[in-house]
Structure formats: C-alpha cells, structure tokens
Amino acid sequence: MTHEIRLYAVLGSPIAHSLSPRLHNFAFQQRRMSWCYYVPVMCQPHQLLEKLEAFRSLGGVGVNLTRPLKETVLPYLARRSRWVEATGAANTLAWTDSGWVGDNTDVQALLGRLPAAKPSGAPALVLGSGGAARSSVVALRMLGYEPTVAARRPEAVDFCPTVIPWAALSEPHPWAVVINATPLGQSGEASFDRWPAWATGTVAVDWVYQPRQTAFLTQAASAGCRVVDGLALLVDQARYAWVSWFGEMGPASMIEAVAERASDDAG
C-alpha cells in the first residue's frame, strides 16, 4: 500500500533549538509511518499566513507553533478547541476540509503534571506574559489555584486579573506553584536578573527544556521545591498533538526515549 506524503512542522523564531522534529520523526519511524515527515520552519509573526499557505501547498497537514506565533495564528483558524478559546493561544494546528483547526496542548500537558490545589485557592505565580503564560494560568485555575502573573509590562497582561511588576516577584509569598513561562535561562537567552522567594514544598515548573536542568530548577530544588522540567512538558505536549493529527495519543515510550537522547546531546 502506498501513502500520500504528509508533512508536519514546527514554526517559530528562534527555531534551531526545537527538539520537536527529532521527537516526531523518531515516532514516525517507530510506527513505520514512512510517509510522514516533520521539519522546522523559521517564521516571524508577519510571515505566518504566507508560510502556512506555502506549507499547505507542499502537503502540510499538521503544525506546532512556538513563540511568538501562538496568539498571532488565531485569525487564521477555521475552528478553535475549547483550550484555544480558554487561553487565546494555539500551539497545534491540524488541516481539515474547512481549514486549520487550532488546539492548545500546553494546557493539557501542564494539567497532567501538576497536583490539584490543596487547599482550593492556593496561590500560584506565573512568570511571563506570552502564550505559555496564558496556558499556565488556565491550567492553574482548572486545578483550583489562584494565579498571579509577574510581567515586565503588567499593563499588557489581559488574561489574569492579578498582576505584579517583575521587580516584585522576589518578595516573600507562600506560593504553592511557581511557573517560568519565559525563555529566560534557555540556551542562548538571557538569564534571570531576580528570583522568586522559594518556599519548601513549592512546585516549580520551567517551560524551558534546553538545558533540561535550568538554573531556575536548580535554585528551586536547592530550596526544597518539587520540580517539573520543560522536557517532560514538551514530551506530553507532543503526545497530545498526535490526538489532533491522528486521533490518538503519541507513543510515550518512543518519544521519551528520543527526548532523553536529544537532551543529552544538547548538553
């Protein structure tokens, strides 16, 4: 049996650091899906529509989006999942007869890695104001937390009613969860200029996955926090993308194996 070639891609800027091509192509090989290929595509916000159209003309049927495109894509979607409606951001697209359908697997990945709030209404802190921060706030609310966002431009945050300036994030507070939803600490990016006031028992989450053991997580672990690293979230996010593309979760053991190897290579 022959199959029509199907292309999948991750679009964003920067894009060279992305492990998504290695994750998905490895899984395609393991599933003997030789007609499927996954590629990285450098894309700025003003190029998104043009590149989506070009990708579609080449046989593109599935897309992941990273920064800074998760919010830019919204006007180009034919349909939005409930996760996209809740966050105002999409990181996964699937082509259908009616056009691109958007989903947000960031929320789903985070829901699977965080405990429910105990007690209900426990305070949580999200660092950042982009698509990952939006997803983090939605997931935290669903789990019963009361989120606060720390941002360099608090006036630009329209997805969380409680916002503090970046300079205030170091002030002591009994945060149950602290999530880094910025690129700070990623290989090739700037480092943190201040740190949250950690508390023993806080759950610290970092969306950055290169390096896997970030300075953010190292600081948190040394303070007695439980940590969730960005590579674990990337793997879960990738598995949920397969639901949009193939109607089933991606193969956990295969994706996790290549993620571990790619992380070791990057380090």
Number-wise, the strands total 12
What is the CATH superfamily label of the largest domain?
Leucine Dehydrogenase, chain A, domain 1
Helix/strand structural class: alpha/beta
Query: What is the H/E string?
Result: EHEHEEHEEHEHEEEEHEHH
Specify Rg, calculated over alpha carbons: 18 Å
Mean pLDDT: 92
Q: Main sheet: which strands, in order across?
A: 2-1-3-5-6-4
**CATH class assignment of the largest domain:** Alpha Beta
Q: Please, how many domains?
A: 2
Number of helices: 8
Can you tell me the overall shape?
A: globular
Q: Portion of residues in helices?
A: 25-40%
Oligomeric composition of the shown chains: single chain
Largest sheet: 6 strands, mixed
What CATH architecture of the largest domain would you give? 3-Layer(aba) Sandwich
Short structural summary:
The protein has 267 residues and is an alpha/beta fold. The chain has helices spanning 20-30, 48-57, 82-87, 105-111, 131-142, 215-222, 230-246, 252-266, and strands at residues 6-12, 36-42, 60-65, 79-80, 92-96, 99-103, 123-127, 146-151, 163-165, 177-180, 203-206, 226-228. It has two domains: 6-103 and 232-266, Rossmann fold (3-Layer(aba) Sandwich), CATH 3.40.50.10860; 108-228, Rossmann fold, CATH 3.40.50.
